[in-house]
């Protein structure tokens, strides 16, 4: 198979080692005579799959014992209403808007009363994330919500917030497991799997156990975190195949040296691409240096008329998924954990060649 690199924002590239193992086990998982896709999620064959997935996720994130891990469905967007359903408790909540996804999260929460804006960078076109010290929230808020990494605008926070007495809810869909974090800084962490974890259809939620008692009485059982926790994420059929692949990805990260090793290579990859962009006036990235995402590098060309030629030539060179999001256009290179350094080098080599020819 010819070498191709997938820079799509999600569903995204998965480690080749993981895909090969899935291929090997697809028809007959560990001599069980079944594919994981065929197994009962309550059967003895499946039990070690979900148990090991949770165990290794806990190991990677150094999860304290008072945090529960839930394997849910519906994507991260479903948490836009599950969060207020489970936490608002007839109080108020504050939302930080640092890009498209956090604004959508705020808008999706509007059917609930008491949803406020703590800070927004929309007026500066999301080129810089609002600093934590500028967040304007109430001490009586039930939670503060923010997004750690904006996949569309390429804006990322790099420090865990130090806010006491108010639970921090964080959407980590596109940056989870790319570097170490201090889980104790957060009350709730959630992430769609289809970027750094596995295939689309699985959502990981990590919740501090003292936050499981505030769900609105009208919350359906499958949306109720406490009910899901009490049933080991199996109140209904979970995304069983997605959990299996996620577990293999967790194994791969551990074997690769853990989150410290992931951070080191992710810094190397993103710096290599940003340094080249900054060395030219042909390619442009306007995100403030302190918030430049290591996962999603959004950029454009000084002449928009060249974008179609750039994308066409990229695909001929085996570089796929570089078209920017439909809302802002331009270009975007998503360089998640599974993107090898060689892929970023190949992209920069092509960018150099394209610039020289245009």
CATH class of the largest domain: Alpha Beta
Question: Based on the structure given, which CATH architecture of the largest domain is correct?
Answer: 3-Layer(aba) Sandwich
How many beta-strand segments? Answer: 14
Average of per-residue pLDDT values: 97
Domain count, please report it. Answer: 2
> What general outline do the C-alpha atoms trace?
globular
Task: Provide key terms for this protein.
358 residues, alpha/beta, Aspartate Aminotransferase, domain 2, Aspartate Aminotransferase, domain 1, 7-stranded mixed beta sheet, 3-stranded antiparallel beta sheet, 9 helices, 16% strand, globular
Topology:
Layout: E1 5-6, H1 16-25, H2 47-61, E2 67-72, H3 75-87, E3 93-97, H4 100-108, E4 115-120, E5 143-147, E6 149-150, E7 155-156, E8 168-171, E9 188-192, E10 203-208, H5 225-230, H6 240-255, H7 258-278, E11 283-284, E12 296-301, H8 307-316, E13 319-320, E14 331-334, H9 341-357
Describe, in plain words, how this protein is organized in 3D.
With 358 residues, the protein is of the alpha/beta class. The chain has two domains: 17-255, Aspartate Aminotransferase, domain 2, CATH 3.40.640.10; 257-357, Aspartate Aminotransferase, domain 1 (Alpha-Beta Complex), CATH 3.90.1150. The protein is 33% helix and 16% strand. The chain contains nine helices and 14 strands. The protein has helices at residues 16-25, 47-61, 75-87, 100-108, 225-230, 240-255, 258-278, 307-316, 341-357; strands spanning 5-6, 67-72, 93-97, 115-120, 143-147, 149-150, 155-156, 168-171, 188-192, 203-208, 283-284, 296-301, 319-320, 331-334. The strands form four sheets. Strands 2-10-9-8-5-3-4 form a seven-stranded mixed beta sheet. The chain has a three-stranded antiparallel beta sheet with strand order 11-12-14, covered by helices on one side. Strand 3 (93-97), helix 4 (100-108) and strand 4 (115-120) form a beta-alpha-beta unit. Helix 2 (47-61) crosses helix 6. The longest helix is centred in the last third of the chain and has 21 residues, at 258-278. The radius of gyration is 21 Å and the shape is globular. The relative contact order is 0.17. The model has no long low-confidence stretch (mean pLDDT 97).
